């Protein structure tokens, strides 16, 4: 069960690294968060510790319901619903993501837990999305994917305090809400969410 | 080779048009219309066989031998892939031989496309080779994955070992997804090409067969059906081989056969659903899909190798 | 007598194997040449050609058989000179002089590096004899210098570092039989030298060096095949494709070096066997394809595929032979290209499984992927070369007025096609023989590589059986029905015109769009009265690295020339200064 959920998380991460349709990205993010939530429950069931359940519930509420809702709201406002010319094109970003993932697996061979590696994979693919894409909304998705990676890391590595977990998740919620509003205003001012236009601000 | 092995391959060959027919029917039902009967591909083949051949004045020796070669290669393909029974004889079924036998079909089809001096044949051929070029590394990685998993290149041995349990389910799932995308690209199915359209500008596979008729076309159609069915059987046996009969006793064989049919039906419905809900990718977007598939396969290999 | 002779000749497996390649391919190509040379009958002397051709073949035999570095170098230079004189055989044609001279310079640079390499070997071991070097190879102190010199020297000659088809090694501009010989055989002689030095004389190199060879081979393979794919000149396409195959061979030899250093001997033998077998097969099918391109050139006077097309009608036999060669290079089972290409892929997978280091594992697997991608592109290129040239309709007058081809040319090509089929069907036996020979001469044990068993033979027999069966059935089905011959559908126009077919440019357009940058692909379109489309490719490596090197050398030469004043006193002064300087050096450092 854990293995299958890990596979789902990795598959969604890879798909999100390569695809440019924004509503597909939202769907991918939703499925990924769902898998992480279920993973939390499964871990809680296996270990019998209650704080996994709390994280699971929080993840499910914020990341499968609230944040995708914000994202869908801002997508509706946008005129273009796909990434037109990313900095690294689709083919290369998938290939690079694949090579990165393999390198991560090679470098982190000492860690014997799948979640740590999957967490780092999510961090890297999220970072790749942040770097390779131009639209603010895809960058926000990349940021959220990175955050999912953090959740996976903390699930397996250190027993963080429950309070810190909750704080992190709330913070993410807040940040994504702020970003959604920001995207709305970027769109309003520049009639596009292309972050290239932000460089106009410097003079 | 034992008799059962030959019989099951013959059944696979005979059932290939049925598979395609039911796929078409299911797609029709999903789209909300009635659709042609399940046996329609057989009728089509019979009709084509009874028709006379019309050749292009520009055609060469390729047109006279290619249909036979293509059909022969696809029949041989059906014999290399196990169905419901795996004997102890490992004489055929190396996975590289299977991959490159599929390349025969591709190679000859492209040449047929160029042979009749038509404008569309070259277009289809160029696109087909372009896509299959990107699909090659995935075939390599899948073969490597199966070798890492089962320690063999022989599909029968792989089936036998995988049917007894899988060590790394996560890697297995990812490789399976990669392989499915490879099958879609090799068989020019929907995310890559739409096999139903006869709109010349969008098509790949059909464009090359535009100038064939009569029994030549029948051979090609049959080989296309066979290729799809064999790829599906390959997938079923390499990735979800549970319940396959390793001994020739009656009850085992029966359950294995029923299981095989059920698995093929599941594959068929998956194919039908994806082909109904998805649209064809643009030609230059198709490599991105294959790159994603490459990424899956590479991750699968990384996982399976490190544990 | 024999023992006396064996002092001067190597008679171990490697030499014998490459001797076999040379003789095997030289015979059909010389049969082919008897016909091809009729093209030049009224202009040049035939005797000159045959003497040089014989010298060329003999010097190659000398290289692979020589047992000491002096005779190796002598034969090596002889080979270069003979091939140069063959290259400028068509010397009244201005176009063939310049590539010939470039090539001459290139081979001498490669020869220079090799001389330095043998010098270093002599410095450390104190011997020029190969068997003695093997005994005292423990004394080699800085193997990486020798390794780098060998890589540059043999790599440049083999077309690894300098692509065949770039203007420095433009084998496509030479007479076709020479192109076939050079691509099919001479490049293999360079590979022989590399294997001889790295495996036999030095006894393997460090795995880092092996890794470098593997990566270099892989990178050049993909670079060259993309360049090949975008060419419209038949012979240039084949020349680039030769470099791709050489890249693949070097890659698998590099893998063998890595495995050998990591003491995975059986896997190393397998990889080396794959490399050797691919050398043999590439020799066969590439000389077949080059002779085919030569036939097309002979018959029509052009090798630009955009002017050809529909040659199958008037050159049926040639078309069938080239079809077999195309199928072989496209890895179609059961032909020989498939046999060796699959062996290479299998050895990549198997050896990556054996490696302990995970990083190395990843590199090996990724190299395998790139090689598979290159093989996909190779199918594309081969199909382009065959399909556009031989199938369809004639695109210009040249392809209609076809000159008749002498029978001897067809005989030569038929021999090569037969070899291509035989080496495919009986590949398990040949692979077994190569691996036994190699393991006995390197490891002194017997080890048989047979990853497929006899499956290829079985598949071949079954495939041919089923094809014959189907053809019989079709014969019965067709009884009484005559096929109707019609013109091709003209897409809505009245008749289909030749220029409605896909051209060579159009055929490879998708790849140009994805990988065009790798081959310096540029497209310009102008809309005047009609739409004008200009496309061209440039060799990036040549322009960006080698040309700059040449400019730099030129620049230096111009500066150095300034010390020439033509006054005898000045030259005496130079000599004096040089003598004093060397005296100081000798006193201080020796």
From TrEMBL, chain A:
InterPro entries according to UniProt: HyfE-like
Localisation per UniProt entry: Cell membrane
Keyword entries, A-Z: Cell membrane, Membrane, Transmembrane, Transmembrane helix
Keyword Transmembrane carried by entry: yes
Record-annotated membrane-spanning stretches: 6-22, 29-46, 52-71, 91-108, 114-132, 162-186
Protein name: Hydrogenase-4 component E
One GO CC term, this protein: plasma membrane
Lineage summary: Bacteria, Bacillati, Bacillota, Clostridia, Lachnospirales
Organism encoding this protein: Parasporobacterium paucivorans DSM 15970
Record's bilayer topology term: Multi-pass membrane protein
TrEMBL record, chain B:
Subcellular location: Membrane
Residues passing through the membrane, by range: 6-23, 61-86, 92-117, 129-148, 168-185, 225-246, 252-274, 286-306
A Pfam family per the record: NADHdh
Keywords assigned by UniProt, alphabetized: Lyase, Membrane, Transmembrane, Transmembrane helix
Recorded topology in the membrane: Multi-pass membrane protein
Keyword Lipid metabolism in record: no
Cellular component GO terms held in the UniProt record: plasma membrane
Signal peptide location: none
GO molecular function: lyase activity
Record protein name field: Formate hydrogenlyase subunit 4
Phylogenetic lineage: Bacteria, Bacillati, Bacillota, Clostridia, Lachnospirales
From TrEMBL, chain C:
Bilayer topology annotation: Multi-pass membrane protein
Cytoplasm in keyword set: no
Cellular component aspect of the GO annotation: plasma membrane
Segments traversing the membrane: 13-36, 48-64, 70-89, 101-124, 144-163, 184-205, 211-230, 237-260, 280-299, 320-340, 360-391, 411-436, 456-477, 571-589
Keywords: Cell membrane, Membrane, Oxidoreductase, Transmembrane, Transmembrane helix
Organism superkingdom: Bacteria
GO BP: ATP synthesis coupled electron transport
NADH:quinone oxidoreductase/Mrp antiporter transmembrane domain span: 66-353
A single MF term (Gene Ontology): oxidoreductase activity
Keyword Membrane included in the entry's annotation: yes
Primary localization class, coarse: membrane
Subcellular location: Cell membrane; Membrane
Stored InterPro entries: ComplexI-like_HydComp (IPR052175), NADH_UbQ_OxRdtase (IPR003918), ND/Mrp_TM (IPR001750)
UniProt cross-references to PANTHER family, sorted A to Z: FORMATE HYDROGENLYASE SUBUNIT 3-RELATED, HYDROGENASE-4 COMPONENT F
Name the record gives this protein: Proton-conducting membrane transporter
Species assigned in the record: Parasporobacterium paucivorans DSM 15970
Highest classification ranks of the organism: Bacteria, Bacillati, Bacillota, Clostridia, Lachnospirales
